[in-house]
Amino acid sequence: MIMQLSRKVSLTEGAEAQQSKELRYQILHETPDINSPQTLESTMFSLSFFAAVFFLIHQISSSYFVPPRTSSFEKKVDFNFVAPPKKFHPGTKPNLGSISKPGLKCNHTPGNVSQYVVIPQYIPTSGSIFSNVPSVTLYTNTLLEAIYSTDVLREVFDLSQTTAMQYVDFFRVYGRNYLLSLCIENADELVEFAFRGVEVYFDVLTLPIVARFYANSAANFLFTDGFLRIHNAEDLALEYARSMADCAKDSLNSDPSSKFQVLADGFVNYFDSLGLSTKEKVPFLVFYVGNEWFVAAKNYRWC
After folding, report:
1. What's the pLDDT at 133?
2. Could you tell me which residues come within 8 angstroms of residue 138 by beta carbon, excluding any fewer than 6 positions away?
3. Angle at the Cα of 241 (from 169 to 126), degrees rounded to 5?
C-alpha cells in the first residue's frame, strides 16, 4: 500500500517537472508571431502612444522656450505723423551742420584730397542689380506701395517742380559734409560718383524715377550687407518710409526744394538707425547710390 502511494507521488512529481521544463523551454525559445493581428495591433498602439507623448512634450517646450515672433510694424501703416519716437542706433549722430545753398561750394577742403581723383567705373546692367532676389523684390514693392499710398510721401518723392541740377547741387554739398563727418577721406570722388549720372542724363526727376531709385539703392545695399532677409524685408521697407515721413514733418514746406532736405535726412536717419552709418560701410552704400542712378538713367533714356 505504502509502495503504491510512493509510486503515484513520484509519477505526479515527474509529470509536474516535465510540464515545468516544457514551459521554461517555451518561454526561452519560442517568440510571438509578429505577423499576427494581435501583435501588430499592440505594436501600433505603442508607437502611437509614444508619438503622442513626444509631440506633446515638443509643443510644451516650444511654447515655453521659443518666444513668438512679433513685428514692430503693421503691413498697412498710417503715415499721418502719428508714429513712435525714432530709436536711433547707439552712437553719435553725424553733425552735418548747415547745408549751403545750391550752387555754392563747401568751405571745408581737406588737404589730402587730390585735385584729380579716380572715380569708380560704372558697370552697366539691364536693371537693378539684385532685382530677382525675393527679399529685394519684397522690400522694393513694400516701399513703393507705402510711397504711392501716402499723400505726404508722394509729395516728397515727386521732384518734378525742381531741376535735376538743383538736386545734384544740394546733394553734393550734403553728401560731402556727411562723408567728412564720418572721417571718410575720399569724400569728393565718392560724391562725384554718386550723383554724376543725375547731372548728365536727367532734366527732371519725376515721382516714378525718384521712388524707384530710393527703393532699389537701399535694397541692394542692405542685401549685400547681409542685413536684408525675406523675413524682415517688409518691416525694413516700412521703417524707411516712416523715416521719410518723420523728416517731412520737420522740413517740408511750400518751397519745392525743401524736399531735398527731407530725402537727405530721411536717408541718413534710416541707415543710422540700423547701425550702418559707419566709415567702413558708407562707401559701399555710396557705390549703390551711384550705380542705381546709372540704371535709372538707362531706363529713362532708352527704355
Report:
1. 84
2. 230, 233, 234, 237
3. 65
CA 217 – CA 204 distance, rounded (Å): 19
Amino acid at 58: H
CB atoms within 10 A of CB 51: 10
- Residue 271 CB partners (closer than 8 Å, separation 6+): 277, 282, 285
Grid cell digits, residue 191? 560724391
- Retrieve residue 57's grid coordinates: 512634450
* Each residue's pLDDT tens digit, 254-303: 999 999 999 999 999 999 999 999 999 999 999 999 999 988 887 765 44
Does the reported pTM lie above 0.90? no
What is the spatial distance between Cα 274 and Cα 236, in angstroms, rounded to a whole number?
9
Distance CA 161, CA 199 (A): 16
Would you tell me how many other CB atoms lie within 10 Å of the CB of residue 298? 17
